[in-house]
């Protein structure tokens, strides 16, 4: 039995299955706080600003740690680093169920950021090593399909567990599965180089960080993928935070209808779009130019649909165009992540993913909710402030045009 399990985990299908399961758990853990804000405030006496700091602490540590794990992956075993990261985030989540002060919870959420940075950086790089270039977009699409599912499960599970067993049970239940799965990651193998990796002759010597930076940021594919993904993350970071509130405040929906409708759309569109994007990329051959063109066309379609969702008044029409917009937008996620890992030599993939993570969050979903919120509070008002979202989506479509790629 153990031999069969090892054989499964050593193969590409087993690796994809385990890493996708962990990605679901990753996003489930990431949004646990959102479902227990009220009981946390009552128990720990926290203000809304202090609750917001818990998310900020996670994101800041996550952004900084991601490229560092990318560099560490060039010296150490990726499966071992992966297992360590999963163990750290899961242990920190489990321990969060036993805190008594806000400071303790703040420190533990920062540790979660370290663990998730290891996973988010090394997971895609390890998958890339298991799949040939033409299959990477579809494999990463399956991997990314866990994101909306994990996010939705987080809202559902945290609310149900908190209601029946208190907010501490949410963290305990969220931490235990990761501790168990971390040991399975130790059984993953460091794969032999693919043909494209063996053919690569421009590996960067360990320790030459300046050369590594020039190699990564000197790639036109990496720059296009990262700029476009930053604009995408800016748009969806603001949309995720403000769309339910916008529908309630400006369009007159009930808070329950707005949140439930938006959540269902994101899950359904996220799953359909992400998997569909992977299938389309593979049908187009999975090459860089094809992936860029697919991503650009999808975002060109998503931009006016998002604008229609913001400015239409008919409820059915809003839900329809929002679903279509989200489906087209999520279809970019597998192909664009494949672009990131394909853009650089094999030994720099984890570092490239880490640098990409730092850029898209630092310039994307960290500032965008604040910018849109401030503009809404100003003379701009909500309708003009929300116009930044389709504008950012259009920027991503332009950044992903294949014309920026050198032949």
Chart the SSEs and their pairings:
Layout lengths: L1 H9 L1 H19 L6 H8 L3 H25 L5 H19 L5 H29 L2 H33 L1 H19 L9 H5 L9 H9 L2 H30 L5 H29 L4 H24 L3 H16 L2 H10 L6 H17 L2 H10 L3 H5 L2 H12 L8
Kindly list the characteristics that best describe this protein.
globular, mainly alpha, 407 residues, Growth Hormone, Chain: A, 19 helices
Give a description of the structure:
With 407 residues, the protein is mostly helical. It folds into 2 domains: 9-189, Up-down Bundle (Growth Hormone, Chain: A); 214-404, MFS general substrate transporter like domains (Growth Hormone, Chain: A), CATH 1.20.1250. Helices cover 81% and strands 0% of the residues. The longest helix has 33 residues, at 133-165. The termini are far apart. Mean pLDDT is 82; it is low at 195-204.
Question: What's the CATH topology name of the largest domain?
Answer: Growth Hormone, Chain: A
Task: Count up the helices.
Answer: 19
SSE class: mainly alpha
What is the mean predicted local confidence, pLDDT? Answer: 82
Contiguous uncertain segments of 5+ residues: 195-204
In total, the number of strands is 0
Reported CATH architecture of the largest domain: Up-down Bundle
What's the CATH class of the largest domain, please? Mainly Alpha
- Tell me the Rg in angstroms: 21 Å
Query: Which band does the percent of strand residues land in?
Result: under 5%
- Largest β-sheet summary: none
Total number of domains: 2
Order of helices and strands: HHHHHHHHHHHHHHHHHHH
N-to-C span: 50 Å
Q: What fraction, in percent, of the residue positions are helical?
A: over 70%
For the record, what is the CATH homologous superfamily label of the largest domain?
Answer: MFS general substrate transporter like domains
Looking at the structure, what is the overall shape?
globular
């Amino acid at each position: 039995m153990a031999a069969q399990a090892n054989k499964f985990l050593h193969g590409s299908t087993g690796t994809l299955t385990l890493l996708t399961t962990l990605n679901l758990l990753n996003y489930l853990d990431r949004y646990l706080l959102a479902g227990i804000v009220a009981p946390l405030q009552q128990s720990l006496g926290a203000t809304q600003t202090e609750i917001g700091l818990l998310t900020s602490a996670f994101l800041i540590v996550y952004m900084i740690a991601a490229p560092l794990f990318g560099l560490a992956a060039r010296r150490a075993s990726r499966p071992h680093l992966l297992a360590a990261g999963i163990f750290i985030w899961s242990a920190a989540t489990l321990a969060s169920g036993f805190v008594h002060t806000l400071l303790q919870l703040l420190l533990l959420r920062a540790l979660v950021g370290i663990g998730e940075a290891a996973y988010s950086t090394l997971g895609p790089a390890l998958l890339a090593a298991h799949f040939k270039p033409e299959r990477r977009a579809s494999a990463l699409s399956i991997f990314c399909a866990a994101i909306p599912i994990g996010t939705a499960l987080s809202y559902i599970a945290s609310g149900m567990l908190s209601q029946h067993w208190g907010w501490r049970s949410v963290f305990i239940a969220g931490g235990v599965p990761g501790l168990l799965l971390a040991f399975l990651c130790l059984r993953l193998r460091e794969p032999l180089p693919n043909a494209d990796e063996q053919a690569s002759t421009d590996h960067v010597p360990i320790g030459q960080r300046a050369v590594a930076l020039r190699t990564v940021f000197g790639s036109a594919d990496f720059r296009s993928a990262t700029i476009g993904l930053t604009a995408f993350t800016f748009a969806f970071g603001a949309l995720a935070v403000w769309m339910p509130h916008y529908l309630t405040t400006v369009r007159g929906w009930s808070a329950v209808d707005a949140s439930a409708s938006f959540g269902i759309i994101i899950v359904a569109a996220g799953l359909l779009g992400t998997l569909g994007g992977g299938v389309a990329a593979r049908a187009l051959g999975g090459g860089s130019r094809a992936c860029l063109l697919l991503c650009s066309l999808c975002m060109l379609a998503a931009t006016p649909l998002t604008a229609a969702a913001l400015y239409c008044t008919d409820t059915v029409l809003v839900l329809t165009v929002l679903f279509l917009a989200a489906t087209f937008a999520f279809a970019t996620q597998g192909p664009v992540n494949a672009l990131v890992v394909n853009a650089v030599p094999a030994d720099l993939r984890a570092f490239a993913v880490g640098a990409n993570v730092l850029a898209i969050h630092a310039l994307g979903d960290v500032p965008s909710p604040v910018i849109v919120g401030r503009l809404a509070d100003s003379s701009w008002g909500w309708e003009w402030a929300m116009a930044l979202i389709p504008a950012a989506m259009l920027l991503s479509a332009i950044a992903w045009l294949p014309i920026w790629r050198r032949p």
